[in-house]
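Chain and backbone:
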Amino acid sequence: MSSAVRRTWRRLVQTYHLLCARDDAAAHGYTVPSGVWACVRCHQPHLELSALHRHLRTDHP
């Protein structure tokens, strides 16, 4: 896979995760500002999506 295709794919996946996080927050009545993600289970805020994924993997197996 060329680097341009990988970069485009990574951007699409990141956009999808961002949109889903915003929709999930709205469905639960939370307002999440741009660039901040919150855990659904414990409401801990995270500034990076990778930090949220790590938190979910380690704290909520």
